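Recall from the previous lesson that a structure prediction takes nothing but the amino acid sequence as input. Here we apply that procedure to Glutamate carboxypeptidase from Bradyrhizobium stylosanthis. The sequence below is the only information supplied.
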Amino acid sequence: MASSNWFDTQTILDGIQRWVEIETPTEAPDQVNKLVSLVADQYRDLPVTLERVAGIDGCGDHLLARSTWGQEQPGILVLSHLDTVHPLGFIERLPFKVEGDSAFGPGIYDMKGGAYIAHHAFAALCAGGDRSPLGITHMFTSDEEIGSPTSRALIEKEGRKAKYVLVTEPARDGGKIVTGRKGVGRFQVFIKGVPAHAGSRPEDGRSAVRELGNVILALEGMNDLKRGVTVNVGVARGGTRPNVTPEEAYAEVDLRVPSFTDADEFVGKILGLTSKTEGVTVKVTGELNRPPYEKGNAGASLYEHARSLATEIGFELIDTYTGGGSDGNFTAPHTATLDGLGVDGKGAHTHYEQLYVSSLAPRARLLHRLYQTLR
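The prediction returns the following tokens.
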């Protein structure tokens, strides 16, 4: 196939369909591994060495495809995840289908479409017989949707070795590319009070649920939208029966912060929460699980380069900042990182998730040109 035909939209869409029709919820490692095997097969005839890292802790395998050239110096690391948030069987509710400019399917936008076009662009590069100036390593991980617990060390190790990191998370609002993301913290709050009979001996009890109320108000009071700091108490529970003073209560908390300064301040505040009620204890555990991705100089010049390539291809590449975390958060503090290089569309994590078919060829071409021109 001549390289001009490589960017035929239908060819790309057919490839994405195969990946989408293997459902890959993070918690179904056998399913994830089925897709990892298919992806590995699709690299067999290309000039790469494959490394498959066995999954641990109930997650699937990770796959690294390294170009046979350029591996002795810092090169390009492409980061993609193969897991999705949709449970097994969701494809019956959201089957792969194309309507107008939209193609639907579980994980098609976040991020099988992006993972596939990055692979496809590499295949196009190899078919053209030209080697990129830099080596290319494409890493496919299995656990991004749960915070990358089993892939983080690998991502950080490869990220430190690379000169550039390209992340194939979906584009934002009309094809914008991502040059900054908030850091993400996750916390658990454990509250212990003193049980009592709520009717006959209320004075003996110390309510953990009442104290949970104080804690929720303190946490929600930390929200500062002007600064871009958000704190969400997403899970709260406690108590056993209506006539018992509750002995235990529990909450799970999500924190988003734009900068490292904010991270230090708010992680400290959350971990430092104390009980306002005598006889009740509050214990908070947790940490920042993704550092903030701040737009540094290296990231800014990588963006400018991508923007000029997009102009040559015929579309405008605008950058944006988002509150969602990605694996780019792990590499951005020390390596020039460009995120949101995947497909355009909408509805990530929903029952109407879709990509825009018209975005496939231009965005695959952009990745192809990045491979060809980054030095």
